[in-house]
Specification:
The chain is 80% helix and 0% strand. α3 crosses α5. The longest helix is centred in the N-terminal third of the chain and has 40 residues. By secondary structure, it is an all-alpha fold. It is globular. The protein has one domain.
Amino acid sequence: MEKSKSWKARLGEELRNYLLVAAYLFVCFAVLLLYRSAILSGVGEHVAPFGTALVKALVLGKFLLIGQAAGVGTRVQAGTLQRRVAIRTLSLAALLVVLTIVEEIVIGLVHKQPVAQSMAEFFGGALPEKLAGCLVMVLVLLPLVATTELRRALGPAAFASLLKGPPRGRD
């Protein structure tokens, strides 16, 4: 019975983590889309595909949890918290790029497109736009990874205490 409780608790924690990560990503993507929509409305275009932001957040959130479970970026020895955050952020961003490419191939195969065509569509377009997307992903991941690493370094109880602030009546 104890095993099923720990299994259920672990499943609940994983689901909670997934929903928190997906919600964070959705907010980030929605803000970026709102900004893009505001810019495009200046030239007469109106686009705000928040459904796309939600789906992308759910997919990338799962990719991130897979990367965390696989220990992406944790095998490199980094002496300081700052270095661990930088290495994990860049490693997870690279993983997201790779898994996004795999996702595009799978979507293409489902739609009966050759792999070469899926790759041409993915890598088509301006290189600066692709690079900017990768850099934005690094910036989105940075606070998420920093929070995770800080929690790991302090321990869950100390981290929770730090977030709650000092007890009332004490400054």
